């Protein structure tokens, strides 16, 4: 059972219940909002991330951004994980690893790279239960969980055994770089929608004699009753011309190119590439393979990061508090073997093995062969 011996008050009261939770600010946001929130978060004397995190909550509604985020996180969540002691898998931890709440812990670890910080409060008891601490209330510069998202009064978490705050004090996460792209993309989509509204259907132009008011009234009635397409009524004597922009943007491709460029920028920020999510007109197998290799490298880095967090003394101590036998063991991800890579590798290994002695352990580890 997890207990905090540093504060009797915290032992009786759940921290999350002490916070004054505010709704997410869903007001309209633009680049000036992003810059103002960034300045507030980076303030030396009064740093506050609440405005920036409200902005993050808004931009992750972007379909493309949420998709590439899910792709990066799922690449880790879907890897087989086990707990080993001296290289031997301990089946006692398999039930814990397969639980949805453990998966949520892993997701929170991964999201730390997106937001900069994350916090979990583990609830004392016999079963592993926890609450996610609202990020707007975590003040890493002060080492407290603030009662108000904009305040500096709160509960110090450094010595609390059941509170796990992850992330670097100065890190504002990858979403900082994606937010401007998402905001610009909204403007691009709005411009595209306006273009379609104006030029996506034919314009009806009716001319009438300026002195014939009766004809004008009748023509107006006809236009009103014949659909909602753009219509214009002008006196026959007037000189009228529509500048529709078709010389440079005949099919809305300007807006489409702008939106695609922003999507590519977000893909590169999150995944390190574009070709594993969308394809370009010039892409081929070789180019896609290079991009896939780049994403593999990021996934490997994420696996190392997640395993390091799961094996951190803080989390191991928390699991021990719940009675799990995690002493002297480690969480280990299974190796993801690339068949194409191994086909090239084995040719080289055979040549090397003829010149120098290669230990058996190398073959087992490199090619994922179960040890004897």
List the SSEs and their pairings:
Elements lengths: L7 H5 L2 H4 L12 H11 L8 H10 L3 H15 L3 E5 L2 E2 L4 H4 L2 H16 L1 E6 L7 E3 L5 E2 L4 E3 L7 E3 L6 E5 L7 H25 L4 E5 L4 H13 L5 E5 L17 H19 L13 H26 L2 H9 L8 E4 L5 H15 L6 H7 L6
Parallel strand pairs: 9-10
Antiparallel strand pairs: 1-2, 1-11, 3-4, 3-8, 5-6, 6-7
Helix pairs in contact: 3-4, 4-8, 5-10, 8-10
Estimated radius of gyration:
29 Å
Largest sheet strand order: 2-1-11
- What is the total domain count? 3
Mean pLDDT: 83
Strand content: 5-15%
Structural shape:
extended
Helix content: 40-55%
Low-confidence stretches: 3-12
Q: What sequence of helices (H) and strands (E) makes up the elements?
A: HHHHHEEHHEEEEEEHEHEHHHEHH
User: In total, how many beta strands?
Assistant: 11
Main sheet overview: 3 strands, antiparallel
First and last CA, distance? 39 Å
The structure class reads mainly alpha
Note the total helix count.
14
């Amino acid at each position: 059972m997890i207990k905090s011996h540093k504060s009797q008050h915290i032992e009786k009261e759940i921290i999350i219940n002490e916070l004054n939770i505010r709704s997410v600010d869903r007001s309209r946001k633009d680049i000036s909002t992003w810059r103002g929130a960034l300045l507030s978060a980076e303030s030396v004397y009064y740093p506050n991330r609440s405005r920036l995190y409200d902005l993050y909550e808004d931009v992750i509604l972007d379909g493309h951004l949420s998709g590439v985020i899910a792709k990066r996180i799922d690449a880790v969540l879907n890897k087989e994980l086990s707990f080993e002691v001296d290289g031997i898998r301990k089946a006692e931890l398999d039930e814990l690893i397969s639980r949805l709440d453990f998966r949520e812990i892993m997701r929170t670890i991964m999201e730390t790279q997106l937001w900069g910080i994350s916090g979990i409060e583990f609830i004392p008891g016999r079963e592993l239960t926890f609450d996610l601490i609202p990020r707007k209330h975590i003040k890493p510069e002060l080492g407290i969980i603030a009662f108000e998202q904009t305040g500096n009064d709160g509960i110090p978490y450094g010595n609390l055994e059941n509170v796990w705050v992850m992330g670097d004090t100065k890190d504002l996460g990858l979403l900082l770089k994606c937010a401007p792209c998402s905001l610009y993309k909204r403007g691009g989509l709005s411009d595209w929608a306006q273009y379609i509204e104006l030029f996506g259907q034919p314009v009806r132009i009716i001319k009438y004699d300026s002195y014939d008011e009766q004809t004008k009234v009748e023509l107006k009635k006809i236009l009103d009753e014949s659909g909602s397409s753009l219509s214009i009524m002008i006196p026959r004597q007037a000189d009228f011309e529509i500048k529709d922009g078709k010389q440079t943007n005949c099919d809305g491709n300007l807006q489409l190119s702008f939106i695609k460029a922003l999507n590519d920028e977000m893909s590169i920020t999150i995944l390190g590439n574009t070709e594993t999510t969308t394809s370009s007109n010039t892409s081929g197998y070789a180019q896609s393979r290079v991009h896939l290799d780049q994403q593999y490298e990021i996934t490997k880095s994420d696996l190392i990061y997640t395993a390091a967090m799961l094996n951190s003394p803080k989390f191991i101590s928390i699991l021990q508090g719940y009675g799990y036998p995690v002493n002297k063991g480690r969480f280990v991800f299974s190796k993801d073997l690339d068949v194409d890579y191994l086909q090239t590798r084995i040719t080289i290994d055979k040549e090397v093995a003829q010149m120098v002695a290669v230990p058996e352990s190398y073959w087992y580890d490199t090619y994922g062969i179960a040890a004897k």
